[in-house]
């Protein structure tokens, strides 16, 4: 340890952070942050290398990304290709990595007892990776598949268009992902050996002195320090200069001063302004870009968005700074235009610049900075603990910021410290009409795109701004409606918590009331001692899912209420008090969370808005257009993100497809929504959870506020019929094919589901979860890594309201019939794994799943979400995980084999199989095709509706008085 340089023995951390930190540097100049967490269930390590896609050779775009992929495929010490992933899977773990412009970040998470073994395997990637030649072509195809996953994503397409229109002398102009063309076909045609180039890249860039390591474990800091010294000191130090610098800027004057008209895949209409900015990293104490993003992105009275919405010109706005490269950032203002206002984009542009003029004329405001500083200090002080892997990965990336003092690694870049008005004014000068360009994204306007972007095929056209137009922007005088925001009344003042000694922490909320119109649950925080709380309310009314039209109108009402509340609630959001109002199959769900000081104020305002709801004609048009756009765009999402909705559509009672809701929405009128809302918010039953730093008496008051606001005429006393899922007939296989809406997408997706039983059968569910645990790593290794069927491959347990089963999902260019055959072949392989598995490996999987189920809750928010999940399912089984573990401990390998043979094996006469495919063309096979989903469901038997798994009286608080 004598050769270890200790940089910091501790760092600034949140109030309730019980971790210990140490920052050290190894003799090879590798810098590491060690974190001792005495309570963590999972351990983690992350290593960030200060090299990324900007270091790609010009003739090999995607090389850094390819290196990230191939690095996982075995090392000299651990040559087995899936040794690392198998070790992690057997010990409750997982891994991932990402390549950015100047950085490549690798990380894993594992059961805390197995950190040393995982670290040893992990460290070898940076010492002696094999880069096996036999893996090269497979991983190039994996990179290509990942790229094709993104080809129809507007986010990727527009980002690449921005890159392609930047300075060609700066690497920002390049293509970072890579594909078969750049990593195989083109280099092959030129006689370039890609593996040799990869080895050259790795051995010239992967140097210890530009690596940042973070380790999180239960072990004390000295033990962790000894481990990293032993395992990471052998990494070679090439003394590479860091961070990387570039001679040319990403944006030259000639790369500015124009509008780019771009045609998107989805039906969207946005105006995006981009201003080249200096690098923000050296200004981490003043955070000038944060100051401006707060004001420009504000949504309250006086803001750009509030004015644009009042004129029907826009529906959304966001602003913020992005890092480009060392020395350079960019600041973007993105305006979501109303569809009918696309041709008025120049007016919108001028309004934005008028507001920028308001900010310039007002100058920096110390009171605004003080508000931002006060809230940033509060947010940091009461920041909740995040998981080990997220902690390690994020902190390793943050360590690459050389300006940040090591004792401020956690707080820098998020906590305002020093008010420097001259710095803020200096950055304000970059918001100039002579220092920007913009992009207008619309499928309809202007319609005469004349160029095509090379990598993604985006159609676009460039139009230069005249000097007169640029000089006119913002010069006509500011509108009186545009002004600085008012002081934020939602900033919490009472941050007290009543911390007491707890002998036994409550495992479930208490049922304070179980009445004909309300069920009130309460859990006073006894673990985290944060001045925060949450309220969750389901306004139960099955009318919301009686028809596709009702389902669409329920979404309409929640979206319209959110629109109405936006200006008021934005200040609350800025003060750490957030809400969400959303429709559900059972009515409407309201969730509010944040600092409990003003929680009741926001609740009262939202409830008043719900009770007073009526349709405003001008807002009706805006919301209908946005909701229509949302439903219509659904089919242009990545297939694997869509397919679960179609599975639920087939399996769930009173479930409606997006297409059905879109068709119904077209007929919805203002009167329809008004009449529906009256019915929706009458005949209600309230299911309510109050949780956090809120007393029992306060919970009663919040419940009274809720019921009194609605009044007794809104209540019902009848039984509430809960929705269920359908049971597929034994021994049958079904196929539901849906043609992809986006016919340009090269990927299909298949979701193969084997229904097993009902959720009330906990032994069945435990067997299913254990089978899923055993299958997950071999499924990924066989179907993705070895067979390269597609970039997106996963397997596991899937639940549908009241039933559960095993599923395998693949997104791929391959034919869905072929994918189904490969899944069946994998299941034969899985049977071999099960039958040949020894007792030791079986015990490892049981232990791994047990650790996952018993993993400690890390935050107040996580605890509240888990309780609400048990409540909203209507099973109320708050000790379900502990009971599952008791069942798991008794399971034997022979029982899992028997389970597999009965429900999953193709040889079983009982097996029930449902294939949902998103395909361009239907492919015939021997399955019973589902043509009409509603007719199909009418032929099925429903599973039992949810019932409490325990007598709710055990949760009751006998001392409570009636509301």
From TrEMBL:
<keyword id="KW-0862">Zinc</keyword>
<protein>
    <submittedName>
        <fullName>Uncharacterized protein</fullName>
    </submittedName>
</protein>
<feature type="domain" description="Coenzyme PQQ synthesis protein F-like C-terminal lobe">
    <location>
        <begin position="770"/>
        <end position="868"/>
    </location>
</feature>
<dbReference type="Pfam" id="PF22456">
    <property type="entry name" value="PqqF-like_C_4"/>
</dbReference>
<dbReference type="Pfam" id="PF00675">
    <property type="entry name" value="Peptidase_M16"/>
</dbReference>
<comment type="similarity">
    <text>Belongs to the peptidase M16 family.</text>
</comment>
<dbReference type="GO" id="GO:0043171">
    <property type="term" value="P:peptide catabolic process"/>
</dbReference>
<dbReference type="InterPro" id="IPR001431">
    <property type="entry name" value="Pept_M16_Zn_BS"/>
</dbReference>
<dbReference type="InterPro" id="IPR011765">
    <property type="entry name" value="Pept_M16_N"/>
</dbReference>
<keyword id="KW-0378">Hydrolase</keyword>
<dbReference type="InterPro" id="IPR007863">
    <property type="entry name" value="Peptidase_M16_C"/>
</dbReference>
<dbReference type="Pfam" id="PF05193">
    <property type="entry name" value="Peptidase_M16_C"/>
</dbReference>
<dbReference type="Pfam" id="PF16187">
    <property type="entry name" value="Peptidase_M16_M"/>
</dbReference>
<keyword id="KW-0645">Protease</keyword>
<dbReference type="GO" id="GO:0005739">
    <property type="term" value="C:mitochondrion"/>
</dbReference>
<keyword id="KW-0482">Metalloprotease</keyword>
<dbReference type="GO" id="GO:0046872">
    <property type="term" value="F:metal ion binding"/>
</dbReference>
<dbReference type="InterPro" id="IPR011249">
    <property type="entry name" value="Metalloenz_LuxS/M16"/>
</dbReference>
<dbReference type="InterPro" id="IPR050626">
    <property type="entry name" value="Peptidase_M16"/>
</dbReference>
<feature type="domain" description="Peptidase M16 middle/third">
    <location>
        <begin position="380"/>
        <end position="664"/>
    </location>
</feature>
<dbReference type="InterPro" id="IPR032632">
    <property type="entry name" value="Peptidase_M16_M"/>
</dbReference>
<feature type="domain" description="Peptidase M16 C-terminal">
    <location>
        <begin position="195"/>
        <end position="374"/>
    </location>
</feature>
<keyword id="KW-0479">Metal-binding</keyword>
<dbReference type="InterPro" id="IPR054734">
    <property type="entry name" value="PqqF-like_C_4"/>
</dbReference>
<dbReference type="GO" id="GO:0005829">
    <property type="term" value="C:cytosol"/>
</dbReference>
<dbReference type="GO" id="GO:0051603">
    <property type="term" value="P:proteolysis involved in protein catabolic process"/>
</dbReference>
<feature type="domain" description="Peptidase M16 N-terminal">
    <location>
        <begin position="34"/>
        <end position="169"/>
    </location>
</feature>
<dbReference type="GO" id="GO:0004222">
    <property type="term" value="F:metalloendopeptidase activity"/>
</dbReference>
């Amino acid at each position: 340890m004598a050769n270890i340089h200790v940089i910091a023995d501790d760092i600034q951390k949140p109030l309730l952070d019980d971790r210990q930190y140490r920052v050290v540097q190894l003799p090879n100049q590798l810098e590491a942050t060690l974190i001792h967490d005495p309570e963590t269930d999972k351990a983690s390590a992350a290593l960030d290398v200060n090299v990324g896609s900007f270091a790609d050779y010009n003739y090999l775009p995607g090389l850094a990304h390819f290196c990230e992929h191939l690095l996982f495929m075995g090392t000299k010490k651990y040559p087995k290709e899936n040794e690392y992933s198998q070790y992690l899977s057997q010990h409750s773990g997982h891994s991932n990595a990402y390549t950015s412009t100047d950085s490549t970040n690798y990380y894993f998470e594992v059961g805390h007892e197995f950190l040393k073994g995982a670290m040893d395997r992990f460290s070898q990637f940076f010492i002696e990776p094999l880069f096996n030649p036999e893996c090269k072509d497979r991983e190039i195809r994996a990179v290509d598949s990942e790229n094709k996953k993104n080809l129809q994503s507007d986010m990727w397409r527009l980002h690449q268009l921005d890159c392609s229109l930047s300075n060609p002398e700066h690497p920002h102009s390049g293509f970072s992902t890579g594909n078969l063309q750049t990593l195989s076909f083109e280099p092959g045609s030129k006689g370039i050996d890609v593996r040799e180039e990869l080895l050259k890249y790795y051995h010239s860039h992967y140097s210890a002195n530009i690596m940042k390591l973070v380790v999180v474990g239960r072990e004390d800091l000295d033990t962790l320090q000894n481990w990293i010294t032993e395992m990471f000191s052998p990494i070679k130090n090439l003394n590479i200069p860091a961070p990387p610098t570039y001679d040319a800027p990403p944006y030259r004057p000639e790369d500015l001063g124009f509008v780019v008209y771009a045609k998107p895949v989805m039906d969207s209409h946005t105006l995006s302004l981009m201003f080249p900015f200096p690098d923000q990293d050296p200004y981490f104490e003043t955070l000038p870009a944060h100051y401006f993003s707060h004001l420009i992105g504000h949504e309250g009275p006086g803001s750009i968005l509030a004015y644009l919405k009042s004129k029907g010109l826009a529906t959304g706005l966001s602003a913020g700074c992005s890092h480009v490269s060392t020395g350079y950032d960019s600041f973007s203002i993105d305006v979501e235009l109303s569809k009918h206002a696309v041709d008025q984009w120049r007016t919108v542009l001028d309004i934005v610049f008028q507001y920028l003029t308001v900010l310039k004329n007002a100058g920096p405001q110390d009171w605004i900075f003080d508000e931002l500083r006060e809230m940033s200090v509060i947010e940091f002080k009461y920041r909740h603990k995040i998981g080990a892997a997220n902690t390690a990965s994020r902190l390793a990336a943050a360590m690459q910021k050389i300006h940040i003092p090591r004792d401020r690694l956690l707080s820098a870049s998020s906590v305002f410290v020093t008010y420097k008005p001259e710095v803020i004014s200096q950055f304000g000068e970059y918001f100039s009409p002579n220092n920007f360009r913009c992009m207008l994204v619309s499928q309809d306007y202007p319609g005469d795109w004349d160029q095509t972007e090379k990598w993604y095929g985006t159609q676009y056209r460039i139009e230069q701004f005249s000097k007169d137009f640029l000089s006119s922007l913002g010069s006509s005088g500011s509108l009186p409606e545009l002004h600085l925001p008012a002081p934020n009344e939602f900033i919490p003042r009472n941050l007290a918590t009543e911390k007491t000694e707890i002998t036994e922490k409550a495992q479930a909320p208490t049922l304070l009331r179980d009445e004909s119109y309300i069920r009130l649950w309460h859990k006073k925080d006894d673990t985290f001692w944060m001045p925060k709380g949450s309220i969750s309310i389901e306004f139960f009314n099955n009318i919301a899912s009686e028809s596709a039209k009702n389902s669409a109108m329920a979404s309409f009402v929640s979206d319209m209420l959110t629109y109405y509340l936006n200006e008021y609630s934005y200040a609350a959001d800025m003060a750490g008090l957030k809400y969400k109002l959303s429709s559900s199959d059972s009515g409407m769900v309201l969730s509010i969370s944040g600092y409990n000081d003003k929680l009741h104020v926001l609740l009262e305002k939202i409830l008043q808005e719900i009770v007073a709801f009526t349709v405003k004609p001008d807002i009706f048009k805006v919301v209908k257009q946005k909701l229509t756009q949302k439903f219509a765009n659904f089919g242009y999402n990545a297939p694997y993100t869509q397919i679960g909705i179609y599975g639920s559509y087939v399996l769930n009672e009173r479930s409606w497809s997006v297409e059905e809701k879109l068709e119904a929405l077209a007929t919805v009128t203002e009167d329809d929504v008004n009449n529906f809302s009256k019915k929706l918010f009458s005949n209600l039953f309230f299911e309510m959870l109050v949780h956090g730093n809120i007393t029992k008496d306060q919970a009663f008051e919040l419940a009274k506020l809720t019921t009194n606001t609605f009044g007794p005429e809104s209540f019902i006393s009848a039984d509430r019929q809960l929705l269920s899922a359908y049971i597929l007939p034994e021994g049958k296989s079904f196929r539901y094919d849906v043609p992809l809406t986006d016919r340009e997408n090269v990927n299909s997706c298949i979701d193969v589901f084997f229904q097993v039983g009902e959720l009330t059968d906990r032994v069945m569910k435990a067997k299913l979860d254990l089978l899923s645990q055993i299958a997950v790593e071999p499924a990924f290794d066989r179907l993705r890594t070895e067979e390269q069927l597609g970039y997106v491959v996963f397997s596991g347990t899937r639940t549908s309201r009241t039933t559960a089963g095993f599923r395998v999902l693949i997104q791929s260019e391959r034919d869905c019939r072929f994918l189904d055959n490969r899944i069946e072949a994998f299941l034969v392989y899985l049977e071999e794994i099960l039958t040949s598995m020894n007792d030791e490996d079986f015990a490892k999987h049981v232990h791994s799943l047990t650790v996952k189920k018993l993993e400690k809750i890390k935050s107040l928010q996580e605890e509240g979400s888990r309780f609400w999940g048990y409540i909203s399912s209507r099973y109320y089984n708050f000790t379900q995980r502990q009971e599952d573990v008791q069942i798991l401990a008794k399971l034997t390998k022979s029982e899992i084999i028997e389970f597999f043979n009965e429900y999953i094996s193709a040889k079983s006469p009982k097996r029930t199989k449902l294939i949902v495919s998103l395909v361009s063309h239907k492919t015939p096979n021997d399955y019973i095709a589902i043509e009409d989903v509603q007719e199909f469901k009418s032929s099925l038997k429903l599973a039992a509706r949810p019932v409490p798994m325990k007598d709710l009286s055990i949760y009751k608080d006998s001392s409570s008085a009636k509301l």
